[in-house]
Design goal:
The complex is a heterodimer of chains A (393) and B (526). Chain A has 393 residues and is of the alpha+beta class. Chain A contains 12 helices and 10 strands. In chain A, a hairpin with a 4-residue loop joins strand 6 and strand 7. Chain B has one domain: Cytochrome c oxidase-like, subunit I domain (Cytochrome C Oxidase, Chain A), CATH 1.20.210. In chain B, helix 7 packs antiparallel against helix 8. The chains are: A alpha+beta (393), B mainly alpha (526). Chains A and B meet through helix 1, helix 3, helix 4 and strand 7 of A and helix 4, helix 11, helix 12, helix 13 and helix 14 of B.
Chain lengths: 393, 526
């Protein structure tokens, strides 16, 4: 039934394609054009895009109008004799010069928009974005807030075991939060390979490149949730790395920023612990790291934290060698505990193994290490306490 | 000269038979045939990969392939189609036609010609073999962007080495073509009398010699970064990931014109024949081709507007890229003017040539849109780009070769192809091509990134249409093979030497099929 509905909609879309040459307003209605803009940049780009479209369509219709007329009128089957001309200097100069001036006409507004987009001065707020395989980190440089943003669509939906939700693949556990009607400047870089941060309605797309800090800005018209995706191929889960921005009114944003300011906790080391993005531990930083955790507690918690490791090492720990080594039976997960703790906390240079001490709480790290050593085909039998992780920070 | 002449006579009709004929041949016609068969084979190999991609994208969710294999398939599909189908295909036409068009007995360097072909099967065996290594084939896209391409296993190294081999093959082929055209033209065939196909190939050959070593350099640096401790592209060692993109696209943009200029040449041969008129604006066609070739070297960074270049750089590359529209426009206008007041018939080759002009122009105009930097920020790395380059590469390059096959097949085989089947093949190809790729414009504008194995539900309908088109497009190509086999087996009507009423040029003065050695004594061109 839903299949039939689908194909009926497809037919409507085809009809829309057929009429696409007519009024441009048809485009937006049928999702045939760029999405409705939500920022001055996006709306300037849309205007530019529509203008070029119209120019291109006019040229296209004229040139191929002439060609199809010729194909109709100058057919041998209609008895048309060939005229053996092969030069016309005046015409040739004209069709070289006229396109040139059309191009100049397009270049002027394009340059103006580009200059506008590249002016990142006088911003109200700066957010630093860091791309990771395959998640985003957001740091609010003016507010000392920092967190990670992961895909929250369940595997079951991706593997077709559950029906897909409305925002399938375009939903995250913790969206980036920003104010509306404020010039927000973004600094963007990457921790591993090149990614690109893109929200179509904002009209901005910028590459996140390791070793570079790129800049861009936007100013969103109204509060709401805006969705986009990583646009630069970044490996296996490139398609599973959405960008979601929660735009609040300036007042609501200020309240959010105040609420999420890092709490002044006793231990200085705790300052660096950011609230983890893991859905498994929403209040990780407030947990008691000093108490003795049991094996069962750690294993239960570790199983949920291990979701973070699945992208590379697989649900069963087999990995995808040689890029992503297996955890089952490996030297790290079955060897000395120190090396295991070190690689989880600090990552491994020149590989995609990230430093998780910034991303996970002490409890998370302790439990995931314990889990890796005693599940997914390993049975070393030892465990590590969160307090030991805290001591190593 | 006389020594070479005698030698050619000695070989006359003394060729080995069976497989040794093909392994050892130095005859431009045999080598041309091998290139064309190789190209057609790779077209199907790459096509099957495309169908696996489209099957996965038929519905949201992961169904057919896993994400790692999906990335390998997109990477290999591109490498195989570009280096395995389009480039060898054009070289095949060059081998068959350039000596016959300029009145030369063979290519200037026949033994090198043999070698440059026989490198290819080994190069592609290695490229495809990468799929069977631990870690799978290359999965970083055909652009092999560092640092992503530094990840991955032996499959990436095999890809790098196979690219080296393809590069050697292309450069040798290009040298051969330049030497042949410069030295072996028949008396009276001065440069400005050469058929446009020869001109476009001469310019393409220079692009190949200039561009392929740059790619070789880029992938070699990648190889040493991967295994020998260098850090050309690794910021942790003082390297620069963006450097790879600059080097790659300094090769990559001329490469785009390597893939399309011979197609322009083919269209410029076919359109006058079926309009029964000389090509309009021959001189300006030559200058426009040279102009495009020059511009192709100063526009590379338009592939990387989002990497965060300085404003001056963005403006320069935008303006330079827009300028390409001028010589490209001249070509399209000249073709239309060639048809104007002609005496037009619409045989299969003409239909393909017309489709190339029409559909390539759609790709050209979307290319102009992509040049506009602010708009490119929206289009970049989306399906809009995928649609754009399939309009220029499939509708431009591949369909021009299909047209060329119908156009010259009677000359090569001495038999006409089945015109009704040819037209059926044309219409089905054109329709399914548009069903496949036109909706991808809308997907891109709506925000679907390229190179993703799964997508959000809002993109479903257009992906369904696109996948249906792709399977139709793939299936119809079996008809193409059937038509060729039919003509080769000699069941059809015999072809005359002239073949086409309006055909003009030296290749139409020899018998159909031509003798094994043509123009042993050079013709005189007035």
């Amino acid at each position: 039934m839903s299949q039939m509905f689908c194909s009926a909609r497809s037919l409507l879309r085809i009809a829309a394609v057929a009429t696409a040459l007519f009024p441009l307003s048809v485009y937006a209605e049928w999702g045939l054009n760029l999405p409705p803009p939500s920022s001055p940049i996006a709306s300037q780009i849309l205007d530019l895009h529509n203008a070029i479209m119209i120019v291109c369509l006019i040229i296209f219709v004229i040139v191929f109008g002439v060609m199809f007329y010729s194909l109709y009128a100058h057919r041998k089957s209609r008895g048309h004799e060939a005229h053996q001309f092969s030069h016309n200097s005046k015409l040739e100069v004209l069709w070289t010069v006229i396109p040139f001036f059309i191009l100049v006409g397009l270049a002027i507004p394009s340059t103006a928009t580009l200059l506008y987009m590249e002016d990142t001065t006088e911003s109200d707020l700066t957010i630093k974005i860091t791309g990771y395989q395959w998640k985003w980190q957001y740091e609010y440089l003016d507010h000392d807030i920092s967190f990670f943003s992961n895909l929250s669509t369940p595997r079951a939906q991706i593997e077709n075991r559950e029906p897909k939700g409305e925002h399938y693949l375009l939903e995250v556990d913790k969206p980036m939060v920003m104010p509306s009607n404020r010039k927000v400047r973004f600094l963007i870089t990457s921790n591993d390979v090149i990614h690109a941060w893109w929200i179509p309605k904002f009209g901005v797309k910028k590459d996140a490149i390791p070793g570079y800090i790129n800049e861009f800005w936007t100013n969103v018209d109204s509060p709401g949730t805006y969705r986009g995706q990583c646009a630069e191929l970044c490996g296996k889960d490139h398609g599973f790395m959405p960008v979601v921005a929660e735009v609040l009114s300036p007042e609501d944003f200020d309240a959010w920023a105040e609420e999420n300011k890092p709490k002044q906790v006793a231990s200085a080391a705790e300052m660096t612990v950011v609230e983890t993005a893991s859905a498994a531990s929403p209040a990780a930083s407030s947990e008691d790291v000093n108490r003795e955790w049991t094996m069962d507690e750690l294993m239960e918690r570790g199983k949920t934290v291990y979701v973070q490791c699945i992208a590379c090492h697989g649900p069963d720990g087999k990995g995808i060698p040689p890029t992503f080594p297996p955890l089952t039976g490996s030297e790290i997960t079955t060897g000395p505990l120190d090396a295991h703790i070190d690689i989880v906390m600090n990552g491994k240079v020149n590989t995609t193994m990230q430093a998780f001490k910034q991303q996970l709480s002490d409890v998370d790290i302790a439990s995931v290490i314990t889990y890796e050593r005693n599940a997914i085909g390993n049975s070393v039998g030892d465990l590590i306490q969160p307090s030991e992780i805290a001591a190593r920070r | 000269m006389s020594a070479a002449h005698t030698e050619a006579h000695d070989h006359h009709d003394h060729r080995p038979s069976g497989i040794m004929r093909w392994l050892t041949t130095t005859n431009h016609k045999d080598i041309g045939t091998m290139y064309l068969i190789f190209s057609l084979t790779m077209f199907f190999v790459g096509g099957i990969m495309a169908l696996a991609i489209r099957a996965e994208l038929f519905q949201p969710g992961l169904q057919v392939v896993n994400p790692e294999l999906f990335n390998s398939l997109t990477t290999l599909h591109a490498l195989i189609m570009i280096f395995g189908a389009i480039m060898p295909g054009f070289v095949g036409f060059a081998n068959w036609l350039i000596p016959m068009m300029i009145g030369a007995p063979d290519m200037a360097l026949p033994r090198m010609n043999n070698w440059s072909f026989w490198i290819l099967p080994f190069a592609f065996a290695m490229l495809l073999g990468s799929l069977f290594t631990v870690g799978g084939g290359p999965a970083s896209g055909w652009t092999l962007y560092a640092p992503l391409s530094v990840q991955g296993g032996a499959g990436v190294d095999m890809t790098i080495l196979s690219i080296h081999m393809m590069g050697i093959s292309s450069v040798l082929g290009a040298i051969n073509i330049i030497v042949t055209i410069m030295n072996m033209r028949a008396p009276g065939m001065n440069l400005m009398k050469m058929p446009l196909f020869v001109w476009t190939w001469l310019i393409t050959a220079f692009l190949l010699i200039a561009a392929m070593p740059v790619l070789a350099g880029a992938v070699t640096m990648l190889l040493t970064d991967r295994h020998f401790g260098t850090a050309f592209f690794d910021p942790a060692g003082g390297g620069d990931p963006v450097l790879f993109q600059h080097i790659f696209w300094f090769f990559g943009h001329p490469e785009v014109y390597i893939l399309i200029l011979p197609a322009f040449g083919i269209v410029s041969q076919i359109v006058p024949t079926f309009s029964r008129k000389p090509l309009f604006g021959y001189d300006s066609m030559v200058f426009a081709t040279a102009g495009i070739a020059f511009l192709s070297f100063i526009v590379w960074a338009h592939h990387m507007f989002t990497v965060g270049m300085p404003l001056a750089g963005e403006l320069f590359f935008m303006y330079a890229t827009m300028l390409i529209a001028v010589p490209t426009g001249v070509k399209v206008f000249n073709w239309v003017a060639t048809m104007w007041r002609g005496s037009i018939t619409l045989e299969t080759p003409m239909l393909f040539a017309l489709a190339v002009v029409f559909l390539f122009t759609i790709g050209g105009l979307s290319g102009l849109m992509l040049a506009i930097v602010p708009a490119d920020f929206q289009y970049h790395d989306t399906y809009f780009v995928v649609a754009h380059f399939h309009y220029v590469l499939f509708a431009g390059s591949i369909m021009s070769m299909m047209g060329a096959t119908y156009y010259w097949l009677p000359k090569w085989t001495g038999r006409m192809y089945n015109e009704g089947l040819g037209k059926t093949h044309f219409w089905l190809t054109t329709i399914f091509f548009n069903v496949t790729f036109f909706p991808q414009h809308f997907l891109g504008l709506a925000g679907m990134p390229r190179r993703i194995p799964d997508y959000s539900v809002q993109f479903t309908e257009f992906n369904i249409i696109s996948s249906i088109g792709a399977f139709g497009l793939g299936l119809v190509q079996l008809l193409f093979v059937y038509i060729i086999i039919q003509a080769v087996r000699g069941k059809n009507e015999k072809a005359t030497a002239q073949v086409w009423e309006g055909a003009d040029g030296l290749e139409w003065t020899v018998d159909s099929p031509p003798p094994y050695h043509t123009f042993e004594s050079p013709p005189t061109v007035k």
